[in-house]
Amino acid sequence: MAADYDELRSDVKESQEQSLQALQSAGAPTAKSVVLELDETDGLDAGGPGGEIVAEELIVQVIPQGEDEFVCSSCFLVRHRSQIAKEKDGLRYCVECEG
Q1: Which residues contact 75 (CB under 8 A, 6 or more apart)?
Q2: For all residues of the chain together, what is the average pLDDT?
Q3: What is the 3-state secondary structure of the chain?
Q4: With left for phi above 0 and alpha for psi between -120 and 50, is residue 68 left, alpha or beta?
Q5: Which of 5, 15, 78, 93 could form a disulfide with 86 if both were Cys (CB 3.0 to 4.6 A apart)?
Q6: HSE of 5 in the Cβ direction (CA atoms, 13 Å)?
Q7: What percent of the chain has pLDDT over 70?
Q8: What distance in Å separates the CA atoms of residue 75 and residue 49, rounded to the nearest whole number?
């Protein structure tokens, strides 16, 4: 008689059913209860990363563009004038963007 190797063995099938029944009887959370719990906790995390509300004011010193610097029209980074690769219609492009 030919054996069907794709079919589950009876002992494996029984153990799977028993473990499923054990999980159901143990009061494992259902998908709906997990979603409801996550929705409830989402409202508490509105303060920012880590759930903290940061009330600090950031102070940044802005340094004006120097005479020997330019702003690349492609990447918008401030570069030294020696890095100008192309100038077209008053727009300057750095070596990295044109390279």
Answers
A1: 94, 96, 97
A2: 81
A3: CCCCCCCCCHHHHHHHHHHHHHHHHCCCCCHHHHHHHHHHHHHHHCCCHHHCCCCCCCCCCCCCCCCCEEECCCCCCEEEHHHEEEEECCEEEEHHHHC
A4: alpha
A5: 93
A6: 0
A7: 82
A8: 29
Tokens of 9: 């063995």
The more confidently predicted of residues 94 and 24 is 94
The residue behind tokens 């159901």 is: 24
The partner residues of 92 in beta bridges, in order of sequence, read 87
pLDDT tens by residue, 27-70 = 767 778 778 887 776 655 555 556 667 778 889 998 999 999 99
Length of the chain in terms of residues written: 99
Q: How far is CA 1 from the centre of its chain?
A: 56
